[in-house]
């Protein structure tokens, strides 16, 4: 995922200009805390073994697990029962002190205080706050408070205050969050793929010595066995696990991520004392999924309404996409101020930004395809008011703590109501009136439909993938043995996008219990030798070093080492060879370069081997992926129904999340529906017949006949690995039927299938 991908702000509502050092709470608070803090709220009743074993965060190794140890059996949800009001009051006085002295805020907002109280009492919690409502403080303050509570109560020795671990999907946001915490002199860090080996070693040393209070990681890190083992034995234990973007856990959520399904299992394995899940967008169904996964009681759910009275929710309809342009130009002339314009396609962002500049506006494009340096420059200019308008895909907005955004413009149909809610939440954080304008036209649906239908692989592709995974070699291996695959190669060979491929593997792991993802491996190791390399390696005594020196093949400047070949020939453990290469890099003998990531899986039970078993598995997976496709279309249709519905837009938005307007009002009084007294109608879609000549042009341009769905993707402009490999996305016929209604597309697809199958 891009560093600038979608997700909620991690440092919502915090004024980064006011930097305060941690100071101990006033002596009056200390007196209240002394002897009053129940040690059960500060440390788990579970006995832990705190190990100083040197478990490198990225090492390839085995992690012991205990699936039977459940957090809530060992650390009851209701540990605060029986605590007197003075104890609870003392904890919250400390929280209030940290809020003011460390973060520079006078008071908590909305449900922040109750959520923090729940966590400090040792219970699990779910916070559902709008973007900008300060979710991150709900875990930052407890993470800092644990040490003071421990010292005051005497329940833990110095250095045994444990760790708060934050799982977040976005590297850029993790780094921003850590930088902000460090400016406040708070011991925080993040572990991610950009860290050098030296940096990872320092992080591990800090964890071993109990110096780090808050550590951030991506959900994919939970597949690393070395990391899981480190968290199982981290000094003081994991006091709090914070799960940001928690809606990604739910298959009903608008941005489901398969790796998030493993977070609840991870929480049990590391014996996290308590968990807080955070999201800005959770429907009732998503809320239930999160609560079930993490055993969160109803009283542990803290929700504030998505309704923001300072946001004007506006909608305008156009007959065609081209008709939207003059509308946007006029709107921006009438409503000056910092503006985000959201579009669907990267090319659209570039073209619309250029059109705006031609109209005299100060505008820049932003999308995931731009270089990191360019994206950072655009973001910094927008924050500094050097650029007024950013035209962006969903890749922009995360980590932007700009309080004075006056306009959010949706040029295209949003992917979901949740996504729309997230994006408009970036406007008007200063409390001033801001506009959220949504332009709709019939053409919008086709683009969104293409995105939704692009992820479903053909049944033939799925069958080929299953045969590849459950090959004779893999099926012959006993339980607990491992096998490796390259997702990149499988995506290319079987024409399955990365996202559905990840979903398929998650199903094999979590739904069918066949395999478990473990630490990935690099398939390519190459290095550039320094002047020290040859004289020192000639005298090398270790078996690993001797084999590396003897087997390295020089190609131009770089020496290539086949680690797998050394393992198979000599029996030397792979981890020892990799550690030796890393040590050679650390001591300056070589400049090591790695590549070709291979995913690695442990076999949990006998794998399916018969044709019948494979067919059954393919049927189940295809049915599940088909359901996901329909769910994606349903969510997009919900957006269209929302903006064209006969109801106050603010009320409709709040109702989607099971909430209402303040004071039980039935309308906001300032959305398009309230101002006009009528719904905004979507103009009718023009009817089209099957373009037989267009179908013939596609068949003439592409000679593929083994996959009718591939031909349909070309016709309707849906990219896939195979479409890209054949360069059909560059051909004139690509997207030539994209503006057809789906019923017409269905007829066209039927014709294409007939030709592809040789029946016409």
TrEMBL record:
InterPro entries cross-referenced by the UniProt entry: DEAD/DEAH_box_helicase_dom, DNA_helicase_ATP-dep_RecQ, Helicase_ATP-bd, Helicase_C-like, P-loop_NTPase, WH-like_DNA-bd_sf
Residue span of region Disordered: 21-82
UniProt cross-references to Pfam families, sorted A to Z: DEAD, Helicase_C
SMART domains in UniProt: DEXDc (SM00487), HELICc (SM00490)
Its EC number(s): 5.6.2.4
Keywords from the named record: ATP-binding, Helicase, Hydrolase, Nucleotide-binding
Catalytic activity: Couples ATP hydrolysis with the unwinding of duplex DNA by translocating in the 3'-5' direction
Ranges of residues in domain Helicase C-terminal: 327-487
This protein's GO CC annotations: chromosome; cytoplasm; nucleus
Residues in Helicase ATP-binding domain copies: 116-300
Statement: the UniProt record of this protein carries the keyword Hydrolase: yes
Keyword match Nucleotide-binding: yes
SUPFAM superfamilies for this protein: P-loop containing nucleoside triphosphate hydrolases
GO biological process: double-strand break repair via homologous recombination
NCBIfam families: recQ_fam (TIGR00614)
Membership in a protein family: Belongs to the helicase family. RecQ subfamily.
Protein's UniProt name: DNA 3'-5' helicase
Organism phylogeny: Eukaryota, Fungi, Dikarya, Ascomycota, Pezizomycotina
């Amino acid at each position: 995922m891009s560093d600038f991908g979608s997700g909620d702000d991690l440092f919502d509502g915090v004024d980064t200009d006011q930097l305060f050092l941690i100071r101990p709470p006033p002596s009056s608070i200390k007196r209240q805390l002394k002897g009053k803090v129940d040690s059960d709220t500060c440390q788990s009743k579970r006995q832990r073994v705190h190990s100083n074993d040197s478990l490198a965060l990225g090492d390839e190794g085995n992690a012991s697990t205990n699936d039977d140890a459940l957090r809530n059996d060992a650390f009851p949800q209701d540990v605060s029962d029986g605590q007197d009001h003075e104890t609870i009051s003392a904890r919250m006085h400390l929280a209030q002190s940290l809020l003011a002295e460390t973060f520079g805020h006078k008071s908590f907002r909305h449900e922040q205080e109750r959520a923090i109280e729940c966590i400090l009492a040792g219970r699990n919690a779910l916070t559902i706050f709008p973007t900008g409502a300060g979710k991150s403080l709900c875990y930052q303050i407890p993470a800092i408070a644990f040490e003071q509570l421990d010292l005051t109560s005497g329940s833990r020795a110095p250095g045994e205050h444990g760790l708060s671990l934050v799982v977040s999907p976005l590297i850029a946001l993790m780094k921003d969050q850590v930088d902000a915490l460090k400016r406040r002199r708070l011991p925080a860090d993040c572990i991610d793929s950009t860290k050098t080996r030296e940096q990872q070693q320092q992080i591990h040393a800090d964890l071993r010595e109990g110096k780090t209070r808050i550590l951030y990681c991506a959900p994919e890190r939970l597949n690393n066995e070395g990391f899981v083992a480190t968290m199982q034995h981290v000094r003081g234990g994991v006091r709090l696990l914070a799960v940001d973007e928690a809606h990604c856990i739910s298959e009903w959520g608008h941005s489901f991520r398969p790796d998030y399904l493993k977070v609840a299992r991870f929480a049990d394995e590391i014996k996290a004392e308590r968990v807080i899940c955070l999201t800005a967008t959770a429907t009732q169904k998503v809320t239930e999924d999160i609560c079930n996964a993490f055993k969160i009681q109803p009283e542990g759910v803290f929700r504030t309404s998505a309704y923001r009275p300072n946001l004007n929710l506006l909608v305008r309809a156009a007959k065609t996409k081209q008709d939207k342009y003059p509308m946007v130009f006029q709107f921006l002339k009438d409503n000056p101020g910092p503006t985000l314009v959201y579009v669907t396609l990267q090319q659209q962002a570039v073209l619309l930004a250029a059109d705006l500049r031609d109209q005299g506006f100060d505008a820049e494009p932003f999308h995931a395809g731009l270089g990191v340096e360019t994206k950072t420059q655009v973001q910094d200019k927008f924050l500094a008011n050097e650029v007024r308008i950013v035209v962006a895909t969903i890749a922009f907005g995360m980590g932007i703590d700009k309080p004075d955004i006056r306009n959010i413009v949706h040029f295209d149909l949003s992917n979901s109501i949740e996504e729309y809610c997230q994006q408009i939440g970036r406007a008007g954080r200063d409390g001033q009136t801001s506009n959220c304008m949504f332009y709709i036209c019939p053409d919008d649906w086709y683009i969104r439909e293409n995105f939704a239908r692009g992820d479903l692989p053909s049944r033939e592709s799925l069958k080929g993938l299953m045969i590849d995974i459950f090959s004779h070699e893999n099926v012959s291996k006993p339980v607990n043995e491992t096998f490796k695959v390259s997702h990149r190669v499988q995506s290319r060979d079987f024409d399955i996008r990365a996202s559905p491929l990840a979903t398929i593997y998650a199903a094999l792991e979590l739904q069918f219990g066949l395999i478990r993802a473990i630490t990935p491996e690099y398939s390519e190791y190459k290095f550039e030798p320094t002047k020290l390399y040859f004289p020192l390696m000639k005298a090398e005594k270790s078996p690993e070093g001797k084999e590396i020196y003897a087997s390295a093949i020089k190609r131009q400047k770089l020496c290539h080492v086949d680690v797998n070949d050394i393992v198979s020939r000599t029996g030397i453990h792979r981890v020892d060879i990799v550690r030796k290469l890393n040590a050679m890099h650390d001591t300056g003998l070589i400049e090591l370069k790695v590549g070709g990531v291979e995913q690695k899986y442990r076999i949990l039970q006998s794998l399916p081997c018969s044709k019948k078993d494979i067919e059954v598995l393919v049927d189940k997976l295809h049915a599940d992926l088909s359901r996901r496709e329909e769910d994606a279309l349903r969510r997009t249709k919900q957006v269209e129904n929302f903006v064209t519905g006969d109801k106050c837009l603010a009320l409709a938005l709040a109702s989607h999340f099971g909430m209402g307007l303040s004071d039980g009002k039935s309308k906001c009084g300032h959305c398009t529906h309230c101002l006009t007294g009528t719904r905004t109608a979507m103009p009718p879609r023009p009817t089209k017949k099957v373009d037989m000549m267009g179908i013939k042009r596609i068949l003439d341009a592409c000679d593929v006949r083994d996959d009718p769905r591939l031909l349909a993707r070309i016709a309707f402009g849906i990219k896939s690995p195979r479409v890209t490999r054949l360069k059909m996305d560059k051909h004139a016929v690509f997207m030539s039927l994209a503006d057809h209604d789906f019923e017409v597309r269905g007829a066209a697809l039927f014709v294409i299938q007939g030709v592809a199958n040789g029946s016409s």
